[in-house]
Amino acid sequence: MSIVSRLLTPPGEPVESLRIVPMRRRHVRSILAIEERLYPKPWTAGVFNSEIDLVRRGERHYVVGMLGSELVAYGGLMFAAGEAHVTNIAVAPELQRRGYARRLLLRLVNVAVDRGSTALTLEVRVSNTAAQAMYRQFGFAPAGVRQRYYENTEDALVMWAHDIDSPEYRARLDTIAKGAP
Ligand SMILES: CC(C)(COP(=O)(O)OP(=O)(O)OC[C@H]1O[C@@H](n2cnc3c(N)ncnc32)[C@H](O)[C@@H]1OP(=O)(O)O)[C@@H](O)C(=O)NCCC(=O)NCCS
User: Could you say which of 62, 74, 100, 135 is catalytic?
Assistant: First the structure.
């Protein structure tokens, strides 16, 4: 499918199935092109490369979402003491609202469960109600605020999802998976 066909597909409709693969150093250039459009203080190539290095040590897990040969989404986890921390998740602006972030997060959460994590956590800008709505679908609830966490200006909402190893949480993931493109 061409980029034009993708852009002509209305938001809300999946254009094609996302292929999710492990993040590699060769992906970083494409990731930065998206990162720089999304964030006032984007991660640098050095940050992504060192995160990818930590995957080999079992301390991180990073994936990218591909449409054909085009990298359109990415996200990752940090593991610590029974918990998995969602470090980032992002979708190219013109391809948002098609369920791709939900697909990526579903994959990351399943990895966390498989790795024995019992809880998930993350920080999100208090103004980022779009991301917060997605996290709520995955059972994340607000647990506190880190003041001036971003650029020493905006507060972060700290969210947690507990008991991700329970049958109830598995049922939630199965429901999300049925609706995911
Ligand atoms: C947050 C983000 C990753 C969502 O990506 P996406 O592919 O558009 O999300 P999806 O289409 O998979 O939507 C999943 C859910 O997120 C919520 N959501 C996503 N975009 C939304 C928006 N603009 N407004 C309200 N809710 C939104 C909805 O609950 C949606 O479920 P629904 O379609 O059933 O209503 C994307 O907006 C993004 O890259 N933002 C910039 C980076 C960022 O803020 N990342 C999060 C850092 S903590």
Answer: 135
Nearest residue by C-alpha to atom 25 in ligand 1: 130
In the residue annotation, 123 being an active-site residue is answered as yes
Structural domains of the chain sorted by starting position, each given as residue range(s) with its CATH number in brackets: 3-179 (3.40.630.30)
pTM of structure: 0.93
Ligand 1 centroid–CA 101 distance in Å is 6
CA distances in angstroms from 160 to 63, 76, 91, 151, 164, listed in the order given: 21, 16, 22, 23, 10
| pLDDT tens column, 59-109 | 999 999 999 999 999 999 999 999 999 999 999 999 999 999 999 999 999
